[in-house]
Design goal:
372 residues, Cytochrome Bc1 Complex, Chain C, Helix Hairpins, 2 domains, 15 helices, 2% strand, Cytochrome_b_C_euk/bac, transmembrane helix, electron transport, heme, oxidoreductase
């Protein structure tokens, strides 16, 4: 009997092994849908970004007005821009949930898969920050000025780095051109990293809620889990479309509807909501260099999870102290996000410093709890 084409054709065989006959643990839940939702978000961001790039001009004199032109003059331009803007928020919601699932179910024991995933997180954060600057509104300009100025605190090479990023001696046209170039290129690097992430995942296999070896209890990905992914994608896509249609400016800072003016500083400079936890950590450290180190450490510390953990306990589900620590860490993360949107004044400064200390303490204890 001849083999079916999906297992015989070289190209189709690769797709088959990744999406159809992939052996998957039979007990994985809807929390494992985040991978497919992130793939959907990445495709939406790339497609809408390509359409926006057709009308955008990376020039400080007209970039704000090209965004206005897209919104008011281009057919359905306002909807495409709204989907791109709100899609970034959906991307980070799914990304944070995906990482939270990995921490709760100890997926970081799959070292290469976890580390490639954290690399994707860093690349997405970089691309999103660069994209936030492109509309060249007041908040975009001052966010770029504040964040890039942090590089000046690096000893010996700080000022040189800042001038290299700026392309001159101030945030200006060269800066905007560079940011647009990298904002356009990084998503394609993310696609490459996602393929590497899949490669490592398929080599080790997926984790499962029980954290046990599921080699003897696996079923094909299609139709069992492809249908489950479909049931997750449809309501998520519908929600994104409805929010983008009915509330296109829901998460856009009002200051960003004002053209960038280097002579007028906004009363309260803050990034988008998905960066607020890192912004709260940054400003809670009185020293500028210390704030930069804390900001980078807040993300890079996730790389240490596979290195400092043990395999005594597979998942947090069977340990009340581990579950308590996980939900405490989740609460601290949410509170840091809230603090990041508050003014830099008492008592928010002290609360932010306490939460920053708790963030690093809990994030280091979480992978060590399996030794207890």
């Amino acid at each position: 009997m001849t083999k079916p084409m999906r297992t015989n054709h070289p190209l189709v065989k690769i797709m088959n092994s990744a999406l159809i006959d992939l052996p998957s643990p039979s007990n994985i839940s809807y929390l494992w849908n985040m991978g497919s939702l992130l793939g959907m978000c990445l495709m939406i961001q790339i497609l809408t970004g390509l359409f926006l790039a057709l009308h955008f001009s990376a020039n400080t004199d007209i970039s704000f007005f090209t965004v206005t032109h897209i919104t008011h003059d281009v057919s359905l331009g306002w909807l495409i821009r709204s989907i791109h803007s709100n899609g970034a928020s959906l991307f980070f919601i799914c990304l944070y949930l995906h990482i939270a699932k990995g921490i709760y179910y100890n997926s970081f024991t799959l070292q290469l898969t976890w580390m490639s995933g954290i690399t994707i997180l860093l690349l997405v954060m970089m691309a999103t920050f660069l994209g936030y600057v492109l509309p060249w509104g007041q908040m975009s300009f001052w966010a770029a000025t504040v964040i890039t100025n942090l590089l000046s605190t690096i000893p010996y090479i700080g000022n040189m780095l800042v001038q290299w990023v700026w392309g001159g001696f101030a945030v200006d046209n060269a800066t905007l051109t560079r940011f647009f170039t990298f904002h356009f290129l990084i998503p394609f690097i993310v696609v490459f990293m996602v393929l590497i992430h899949f490669l490592f995942l398929h080599q080790t296999g997926s984790n499962n809620p029980l954290g046990i070896n599921s080699s003897t209890d696996k079923i094909p990905f299609h139709p069992f889990f492809s249908s489950k992914d479909f049931y997750g994608i449809i309501p998520t896509l519908t929600t994104l479309f409805l929010v983008s249609w009915l509330y296109p400016s829901l998460l856009i800072d009002p200051e960003n509807f004002i053209p960038a003016n280097p002579l007028v500083t906004p009363i309260h400079i803050q990034p988008e909501w998905y960066f607020l936890f890192a912004y709260a950590i940054l400003r809670s450290i009185p020293n500028k260099l210390g704030g930069l180190v804390a900001l980078l450490s807040a993300i890079l510390i996730f790389y240490l999870f596979p290195l400092i953990s043990t395999k005594v306990l597979k998942v947090n589900s069977f340990s009340f102290p581990s579950k308590l620590l996980f939900w405490n860490f989740t609460s601290v993360f949410i509170l840091l996000t809230w603090i990041g949107a508050r003014p830099v004044e008492p008592p928010y400064i002290m609360v932010g410093q306490i939460l920053t200390a708790l963030y690093f303490i809990l994030i280091l204890i979480l992978p060590l709890m399996k030794k207890v």
